[in-house]
Design goal:
Blueprint lengths: L5 E4 L10 H11 L3 E4 L6 H18 L2 E5 L2 H6 L4 E4 L6 H8 L4 E6 L2 H10 L3 E4 L19 H11 L4 E4 L7 H6 L4 E4 L1 H4 L4 H17 L1
Parallel strand pairs: 1-2, 1-8, 2-3, 3-4, 4-5, 5-6, 6-7, 7-8
Helix pairs in contact: 1-2, 1-9
């Protein structure tokens, strides 16, 4: 099972004019644990080409590489697994396609959904949005800014790792980890940072502070 301390979700449109390759290189140097290829707005072919490149770099660095939404794309680029949302394939179907060794993550915001995803075979859960964020549109009220309290409820309800996502910063990361998250996932706290390498390292340190209490 991967380590989930610092989990980068890529999005070049939110990378302050830098390429996703540049951001990922910096994050790898900064000690990122997981890289997820997101890149909303790009074609499947563009994501495939970028995914092949990132797969090579993450493999060299010993970092887990996942693909957002698309199980077919994850298989095509030989990713370690996939992260699924409400509109994607069910966890069971992704597991059948990826096999027992593939990593399958699932986004949840509610305790009942978290338990269901665990029963279906999810390896970890992305919980959020924990804090206000503009990277998700049309989020229901009970799924928006759920706070560390919901992270704690879900963490207590399941046995798989929980990764907090949504509005995560160096300042609030210790709180969500203290609440029970095994790590934090972010887009802009790294991609839009003036120095993505330093931002990645700072998030890792914040996670450790949360564990230390």
């Amino acid at each position: 099972m991967p380590t989930f301390d610092v989990y980068l979700v890529t999005q070049e449109s939110r990378s302050a004019g830098r390429s996703t390759r540049e951001v990922v290189e910096a994050a790898l140097t900064g000690g990122v644990d997981v890289v997820q290829l997101r890149e909303k707005g790009r074609t499947a072919r563009e994501r495939y080409r970028l995914g092949r490149d990132l797969r090579e770099r993450t493999r060299e660095a010993g970092v887990t590489f996942l693909v957002n939404d698309r199980v077919d794309l994850a298989r095509a680029v030989d990713a370690d697994g996939v992260h699924l949302g409400d509109e994607d394939l069910p966890v069971e179907a992704a597991r059948e396609l990826l096999g027992p060794g593939g990593v399958v993550g699932r986004s949840v915001s509610l305790v009942d959904d978290a338990r269901a995803a665990e029963r279906a075979g999810a390896d970890y859960l992305g919980v959020g949005a924990v804090y206000p964020t503009d990277t998700k549109a049309d989020i229901d009220d009970d799924e928006y800014a759920v706070g560390p309290e919901r992270v704690a409820e879900i963490s207590d309800a399941v046995d798989v790792p929980v990764v907090a996502i949504g509005g995560i910063t160096v300042e609030n990361a210790p709180d969500v980890v203290a609440a029970g998250a095994d790590g934090v996932a972010t887009i802009t706290a790294v991609t839009a940072a003036a120095e993505p390498e330093r931002a990645t390292r700072a998030l890792g340190e914040a996670v450790e502070r949360g564990r230390d209490g």
